[in-house]
Structures are given as C-alpha cells and as structure tokens.
Amino acid sequence: VMSKTPFDPEQRKQLETQLELFNTLLAGNNFVIGETLTLADLALLATISTIDVAQCLKDFNVNVRKYAHIQKWYENMRAVTPGFKENQEGCLEMKKFLEGQ
User: Locate the GST C-terminal domain: which residues (predicted)?
Assistant: First the structure.
C-alpha cells in the first residue's frame, strides 16, 4: 500500500477466493464460530475493515460488501464489538490518507 506499486491481479484473485470461502463459512452464522463472539471474529474484523477501507486505492477493486454473508456479519460486528466506533475512526483516517496518495 505505501509503496504505491500497482496491486497484483494474482493477489487480488487469491484474496477474492479467500473472501468467497469466508462468505460461505459465514452462511447461517452470526459469528465466525457459531453464535458467540470470539477472538477469531475480532481478528477477521480487523482484516475486513482494512479491505473495506482499501477500496479507495487505485487498481485494488475488491469490495467486501458484495458478499452477502460477509456484509451481514460485518454489520453485526459493527453493532456488537466493544470499541468498534473508536477503531473505525482510525480506519477512516487511514482512508483519507490513502485517498491523498
């Protein structure tokens, strides 16, 4: 991201494959592992939040919101994760920085 090199199409394809798998795993669940918030959810929330913010990058073209189960999980996580609002403020600052690149 910071090196300003174009995003590798092969890496994008691999990322989308992993997002499709994650989307499938979330089907029928409110959280990554069943119906309880776990450390796995928090770790993946950091990743999904970063990918969501990175949409502003030229050539990135990965939209986590197009995956229905990820979108539902992401919205749920925004509502139930302690400190999400404070963390999101930092993500939005990062987005502003990246957009200025």
Answer: 1-98
Q: In terms of Cα–Cα distance, which of 59, 57, 77, 62 is closest to 20?
A: 62
Length in residues, the chain: 101
pLDDT digits (tens, 9 = 90+) for 28-84: 999 999 899 999 999 999 899 888 887 777 777 889 999 999 999 999 999 998 877
pLDDT of residue 69: 97
Contacts of 38 (CB under 8 A, 6+ apart): 31, 32
pTM for this model (two decimals): 0.81
User: Residue 53 in contact with residue 90, Cβ under 8 Å?
Assistant: no
Amino acid present at 82: P
Which CATH number describes the domain made up of 9-16+29-99?
Answer: 1.20.1050.10
Please state the domain extents for the chain: 9-16+29-99
First to last CA, the chain: 10
